[in-house]
Design goal:
Distance between the termini: 50 Å
Helix content: 55-70%
CATH superfamily of the largest domain: Winged helix-like DNA-binding domain superfamily/Winged helix DNA-binding domain
Structural class: mainly alpha
Shape: globular
CATH class of the largest domain: Mainly Alpha
Number of domains: 2
Radius of gyration: 19 Å
Strand content: under 5%
CATH architecture of the largest domain: Orthogonal Bundle
Order of helices and strands: HHHHHHHHH
Number of helices: 9
Number of strands: 0
Length: 188
Amino acid sequence: MFLTIPASPTKERAFSWFRKPNDFEACVQPELPVLYRVAKRMGCTNEEAEDVVQMTLLKAFRAWDRFDGQHLRSWLIRILRNERLLDLRGSKETISLDESDNWEVPDAPFWDEVSWKIQAGSVLEALETLPEIYRLAVQFCDVEDMSYEEAAEAMDVPIGTVRSRLFRARTMLRERLASKIQFEGGSN
């Protein structure tokens, strides 16, 4: 983050300035788009994502005085993840993972744009077929550009587990995309 932490002999004193309620909004505001995207990737509809993010912020605000000032994004994502899991346990409805409407297409001639959408759709389809533990590793490390450490905190697993899940996820994606290309190529 852009904040600098003053030197202090104790962690408690070092972050006492950081826990002011007025600072909460300024600190979490830049993380809102990330939280929303993560919620959507966890299978939330637009409304559910807004609700989960709102509950995440409420719980984070209540725990603000206990936050140690390190890895804000990971801390918020962990709260969001736990909140989403609570929601899923409470409801047994089917959750749509269709995210194709949320891809941003760069300015390009029409056919380039169509080709890009098809490729993005193929990658998204392959990503959605991954088990959640692997999909989250890709989401955090490759899409959200989190460090392994931040992803490990968000998923509540060791760093080595993040690395192995990411390796397996990328291998599965390569295999699924390669088989899709061979299948589509063979049909022409």
